[in-house]
Specification:
By secondary structure, this protein is mostly helical. The protein has a domain of about 50 residues. The chain has 4 helices and no strands. Helix 2 packs antiparallel against helix 3.
Length: about 110
């Protein structure tokens, strides 16, 4: 009995499955389904990165970045614009190097 996934996967995954001698079914998502699936994939990959140990963290962060890049392209955000916005936000609000934990606000 086949295991159902119904989730967005990287483009080469079906070929990898077939190379292993297994079969799989695929479908091409509509633009709307693709955007929804990318958002779901972003949450999935972020959870995996958050739970990863030190040996898996690099791989999981690469997966998060891959989804962020794909989502940006899908909604028409230029990678250079994304980098500029990241730099602007860092300049305005700072980064996380200070390891600051906000305890309370009055």
């Amino acid at each position: 009995m086949p295991t159902e996934y119904r989730k967005l996967v990287r483009d080469r995954i079906p070929d990898i499955i077939r190379t292993e001698g297994r079969t799989c079914g695929t479908a091409t998502l509509s633009p709307g389904e693709y955007l929804t699936s990318l958002r779901e994939k972003l949450v999935e990959e972020a959870r995996e990165a958050a739970a990863a140990d030190e040996t898996a963290l690099l791989r999981e962060l690469a997966d998060v970045r891959e989804v962020v890049d794909a989502l940006a392209v899908a909604v028409g955000i230029d990678p250079a614009d994304l980098a500029r916005e990241q730099a602007r936000r860092r300049a305005e609000r700072g980064g996380f190097e200070g390891r600051i934990c906000l305890l309370w606000v009055e």
